[in-house]
Amino acid sequence: MKLSEFELDVMHYFWKQTQCSAKQIHQWIGEQKPVAYNTVKTIVDRLEEKGAIIRVGKDGRALLFQAAVTQEELTPSVLPNFIKRFFGGSAKGLITHIIDDDKLTDDEIEYLQQYLKDKKKQ
Question: Which intervals of the chain form a coiled coil (predicted)?
């Protein structure tokens, strides 16, 4: 499933909530950046067409939706395009960026070291 950057932004709200309406999504996104309700409604409709969200009921006249896919299910289809767009297709560039810019805890560093050791054995 291929999603645009804005569709992914909207999906984050569906992943945080059990169910919500396009109006609620518009209100939450409106706190971050100005966007028309019709734009959000169009994105919600597209996400439903793509099968990323499903209708689960009504609240008055408003349709309620919930995520039909998890973030983990969507990551494999989104990550390669992200790496291509931002790091010229280099996973090495992404990993370097994360390590350099992120404040890794000792536990996270230990996890990464063990993960790489295990990966090398494979």
Answer: none
